[in-house]
Amino acid sequence: MTEQKRHRILMVSDFFYPNFGGVENHIYYLSQCYCNDSCLWESIWCAIYDWGFESLLHSVEAVSDAKYIAYFFGTLPILRTILIRENISLVHGHQAFSTLCHEALMHARTMGYKVVFTDHSLYGFADVGSIHMNKVLQFTLADVNEAICVSHTSKENTVLRSGLSPEKVFVIPNAVDTAMFKPASERLSRNEIVIVVISRLVYRKGADLLVEVIPEVCRLYPNVRFIIGGDGPKRVRLEEMREKHNIQDRVDMLGAVPHAQVQSVLISGHIFLNSSLTEAFCIAILEAASCGLLTVSTRVGGVPEVLPDDMIVLAEPVPRDMINAVGKAMRMLPMIDPQMMHLRMKSLYSWFDVAKRTELVYDHALRCTDENLLQRLPRYLSCGAWAGKLFCLVMIINFLLWHLLNVLKPPEDIEEVPDFVYPHHQHEEPPNLEAKTREDAGSKPAVAIFPVRRSYCFRRHLLHQSAFAVETFVELMK
């Protein structure tokens, strides 16, 4: 029986480790899961940082030191090299805020590759920034093969912002590593109720709402104590609130909490409080529920889709409703069993399930018919009277630059990386994400160690872009 072809997926985003967040976690866990029992998928990561790259893998290849600009046409030469050298089957871009994602999808479509886009956030329609971002998203999604959103609310938002056909958008939620987020071995005493907040202290995460809610909850419930983990520009307001109401002994400010220590903070509490003003999904809620905490959250975005009603108390993003929700959650605490909640989360959310569903989207994208530039241009032209013409011009220039690169350095001159079959692919059962976890979590996520082949890092430099562009083409001509 002939061996089935192994597909290689290029994951592209500005958001990646060592930074921590929902997008970073999603890319990392999804990539790890693709060394599954079929061994037909393999992930290669592409990230961009201002200050360098810190690897979580066994093999890392840093692409140049400061010679490649990550702006628009400047990424075409190096991305072309990566796509050919790694024999990429499909390019998967993450997050609408990632400029590298938009550039990579544009270049990949120019070169005839199939592309998939995942949107992880909600965005508005009225302000200047939203209008600009939505037009860029419309340009990128005009020619993607398939798109993924993390919630039905996120899908509706993306379709309205980009004009993308709803039939091309799939909904695949995030997941949680339940092997890392486990409840405490012993149930906490309810003599003192501890409410945990772990979030970036910014406006979008509802830090101003916390300033109104916390003093009133402390006044109504003398046995309540707050633990706040996170940092941001709104931290000063929270510290001023503590001093104004003289509740320093009931509100602990931990500052920034490393991701590896989040679980130890969560298991010290009974209730997790999320005050976000906008959320497409909110992985923090999954992590808290996996640790056995009852969640109180604002009813915004895709949050109502995340947990069953008996595991979360929803409230409107106004102080009075949030305070009432906290009171309701405290009355529900005797009925909460952290161990049972953890087992339910294991059955509800799995990264392997997310990977399998994403693999179906990849299969669907790879079956799409190939199209030349003339067949694709009308989709860009439909993006607007003036914007459509500008988008067409951009794609034509990109197409010509690609052909120029093919002349200067033909694809056959780029050596492809040979396949490497890891021993456990041949002789062992595929590793289990729950059983085979990192023993030393450190500052890294506790997940199974699967072989991911290579990571690439761009370094963004704002100055001397033209000089770097010249150096890029000079190196290609060597």
Identify the notable features of this structure and list them briefly.
seven-stranded parallel sheet; elongated; Rossmann fold; 2 domains; single chain; 14% strand; 478 residues; 13 strands; alpha/beta; 16 helices; six-stranded parallel sheet
CATH architecture identity of the largest domain: 3-Layer(aba) Sandwich
How many alpha or pi helices? 16
Mean pLDDT, all residues: 81
Q: How many individual β-strands?
A: 13
Identify the CATH homologous superfamily of the largest domain. Answer: Glycogen Phosphorylase B
What does this protein look like?
The structure is a single chain. With 478 residues, the chain is α/β, with parallel strands linked by helices. The protein folds into two domains: 7-175 and 352-477, Rossmann fold, CATH 3.40.50.2000; 193-348, Glycogen Phosphorylase B (Rossmann fold), CATH 3.40.50.2000. Helix content is 39%, strand content 14%. The protein contains 16 helices and 13 strands. The protein has helices spanning 22-33, 76-85, 99-110, 128-141, 152-162, 207-220, 235-245, 262-266, 283-290, 319-332, 338-348, 351-366, 373-381, 387-408, 423-427, 465-477; strands at residues 7-12, 41-49, 90-94, 114-119, 146-149, 169-171, 193-198, 224-229, 251-255, 271-274, 294-298, 312-315, 455-459. Strands 6-5-4-3-1-2-13 form a seven-stranded parallel β-sheet, sandwiched between helices. It has a six-stranded parallel β-sheet with strand order 9-8-7-10-11-12, with helices on both faces. Strand 4 (114-119), helix 4 (128-141) and strand 5 form a beta-alpha-beta unit. Helix 2 crosses helix 3 and helix 6 (207-220) runs parallel beside helix 7. The longest helix has 22 residues, at 387-408.
